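Have a close read of this protein, sequence plus structure tokens, and explain what the tokens say about the fold. Thanks in advance:
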Amino acid sequence: MLKIAQVPIDSTPFGAEPGVSIHYVSCPPPADTKSKGTILLIHGFPQTWYQFRRVITKLADGGYNVIIPDYRGAGESTKPWDGYTKDVMARDLRTVVKEHERVEGKIIVVGHDIGGMIAHAYAAQFPDEVDGVVWGECPLPGSTMYAEKKHSPGLWHFTFHNIPDLPELLIQGKEKQYIKHFIDRLAQNPAAISAHDLEIYSLAYGSAGGMRAGLNCYRAFEQDAEINQKMLKEEGKCPVRCLGLWGARSFGDEKASRGMCEEFYKGDVEFEAVPGAGHWIAEEKPDVFVEKVLAFAGR
């Protein structure tokens, strides 16, 4: 059974700024199933927790307590002016996991797109609390791939989203058209995201502050790069085992994914491609997404 909550994130060493609240959905395993642990799912842009609607109960049926938040600035979470570096966004979610869901053991962190950047920040900051991290469909700020690809034509939106104020002005009133173009351009099967799904995402990012908050996640990338490089130099490579998960028809490949993982992780590094999927793996190929996440979690 899904549980929906809206929880405050206070100004503690592991929290974020006062006045921020995080909306999340959680789903425990069936009552007759022994729990195998907790999986935290972190969505990307331009999406919300709803991105994982087709995989939540399947992961729970696999024996896991599943936690799916709207990260700060997205969906029903509050939309503050700042705090969009991924280390802060990861600490928001860690507060949900530890202080509100009261999870005691290690967790599996799964992130897609910007959620992948947050998943890395979670594992890098709290390696003793993470059993494994799954992330992909993003060039990680601070990595060689990020430096090489951030100004490439396929990632033109990185530059566009980084311009102050202008993107919001041009997108205002056309959120649905912009998000549909964004989704269709990166999908192998655009029909996997229906008109109803598009409406949900458009309403979320068309709300007051929604698009500004979403774009601020991109505007923090250069800070993220500095933070990731600083942590790498001071703390060394993250010891958590890592899976790079990409759509087989997306813009990444095994060489690039493994390269990024090996730059930042000293634990076991794996790569998996989801056949027939573009960028939106959990929506285009939910059964394969579940299969690969559960297989990794159980190893």
